[in-house]
Amino acid sequence: MRPMLALLALAMLTGCATPQPPVSPSLSEDRAAMLRDRFLDQDDVPMVAAHRGCWKNAPENSVQAIRDCIALGIDIVEIDVRRSRDGHLVVIHDVRVDRTTNGTGKVSDLTLGDLRALRLRTGKGGHDATLTDERIPTLAEAIAAAKGAILVNIDAKPELVPIPSPESGSSASGCSLPELVPIPYTIPLCSMNVAISPGSTLCGRT
Questions:
Q1: Whole-structure pTM value
Q2: What pLDDT score does 162 carry?
Q3: 76-83 and 49-51: which strand pairing?
């Protein structure tokens, strides 16, 4: 098993969104099965992962960055997840929004509405980076963009832990989580160790 930092979500089967470029359901299912088999294989064949998405022509951690990875045939996209002030899971790396958006302040101090009003900057951001029409995605939107086409490595930031254990079968929101499957890892710094199985839905406020 390949060691992975944080949380690996197997966003596998067709459903929530149409990957870019568009593919038929049968092709999407075939790719999902192929990626899952490669990840679970023990032969240590390398898989290609893109850190914070493919941000050469799109903002990091954006839906477009995920779609660009799919178009390039990347195996795994890594994204960062934080929680907004009102409890929503959003995809952004920094504690603050300043570097990657036209806003200012901590993610944890802003509501989902506040965060969605901001525009993402191109590439790795910074005040000199061009503003785009891309917005900070929710985790659900990111998973929807990836579903059926690419594996998702979720770097869950400290405010998201602890999370419910797979044995408990429940989350803070009280919804059942039978689809959570533990994945062994070997890196001590990992704080999360859960896979979302193919075809599952996300519980809680995503």
A1: 0.70
A2: 55
A3: parallel
Is pLDDT above 90 for 98?
Answer: yes
Cβ neighbours around 118 below 10 Å, total = 20
| pLDDT above 90: residue 108 | yes
> Sign of torsion, CA 50 54 59 61?
negative
Structure token digits, residue 58: 């799109």
Long-range contacts of 112-120 (CB under 8 A, 24+ apart): 112/84, 112/86, 112/88, 112/138, 114/84, 114/85, 115/84, 115/90, 120/59, 120/62
More confident residue, 59 or 24: 59
Q: Read off the tokens for 132.
A: 């785009």
Compare 166 and 138 and report the one with higher pLDDT.
138
63-72 vs 139-146: helix crossing angle, rounded to 10: 20
| Token pair for 138 | 């929710």
Whether pLDDT at 26 is above 60: no
Task: Check if the beta carbon of residue 77 is closer than 8 Å to that of residue 151.
Answer: yes
Q: Is the Cβ–Cβ distance between 26 and 167 less than 8 Å?
A: no
As annotated, the active-site residues are 51, 93
